[in-house]
Amino acid sequence: MTTRITLRTVLSRWTVAVPVVAVIALVLSWGRKGLPGFAVALVALCLAGAVLAAVHHAEVVAHRVGEPFGSLVLAVAVTLIEVALIVTLMIDGGAKSHSLARDTVFAAVMITTNGIVGVCLLIGALRRRVAVFSAEGASTALATVGTLATLGLVLPTFTTSTPGPRFSGTQLVFAALTALALYGLFVSVQTVRHREYFLPVDDTGRPREDFRAGGDGDAPEEEPGGGAGEDDDGERHVRPSGRAALLSLLLLLVALVAVVGDAKAVSPTIESGVESAGLPQAVVGVVIALLVLLPETLAAVRAARRDHVQTSLNLAYGSAIASIGLTIPAITLATVWIKGPLVLGLSPTHMVLLALTLIVSGLTVLPGRATLLQGGVHLVLCAAFVFLAVSP
């Protein structure tokens, strides 16, 4: 027990110190061009640490407010990081960054709906032979993902008002407004009107009683300075206090500022590295998506190991919805400062992968149960996406 408390203390100090160090790195590197290699490596390390710290603090807030609000907090925090990285790279990226928003959003959709979902279904099925979740909640989220992806990423390829796979100005505004409307409607359904659809379920498919009251299935509230959540092996922790949650909220904001600034410092190195390796420019979008979704993947895996597969799906589909529903409006607003056209339409190869993903995902979530096979199929689709991004 003493070792566990000491470990929590160390981790707590780490998550407090890293955002501060990342902000210091931002101040020291701000406005400097041509940073030496060791400086770029240090800033990149601070950037990765700030992302991990940001999502950790989002998880602390999530434990405080309970499900499904916790998944929503985490998804929005990750999406804010993603939007910040996209806008930062597009402002300084020139002509090669015109499709960066599309590449990053599509990568996020494919990684969440296939990679995160596949891993969590595998863990859930290995734990109890069949992973059980709410068909109503998962199918509702999946339908929202499919609609947003089609309206925002597929239709621009077929519109005729402007040449190329992009919207006209009025079409882009319409897409942004509809994305915001759908995202707001989904959040309302998830957190208020049909909250029970998004709670972890028991073997009969009914919401678990320990989540109905608005908690997260853990023990009562902690004393100030205590831990929160659960260990990976399922040991219970107490809920964070209001003071701890408020501190994490403040540190989350600090970490987000650090992420934006540090990304701006290392963006030239990322792009030159991709170009030097002879890789397609779309790989930059995949790198951004992998960076911001890695911590959320860990959170989803932890939920699946605790037999909260529905929470894992909330994280995966919620991130996909937030990625499209918040990124497209943000990029639309950023076009005031970003020069050049905004390319959103997918290529035929990516449209095939998206269509296959939506069909397979529908067959996966509708029964409310999944086996190892469904998890394996989704992981194969994710691998196919990454492979074709590197070798189109």
Automatic annotation (TrEMBL):
It is a multi-pass membrane protein. It comes from Streptomyces tremellae. Residues 40-191, 248-389 form the Sodium/calcium exchanger membrane region domain. Residues 206-237 are annotated as: Disordered. It holds the Pfam family Na_Ca_ex. Its main location: membrane. Residues 206-215 have a biased composition (Basic and acidic residues). It is found in: Membrane. The keyword Transmembrane applies. Keywords: Membrane, Transmembrane, Transmembrane helix. Signal peptide: none annotated. This is Ionic transporter y4hA.
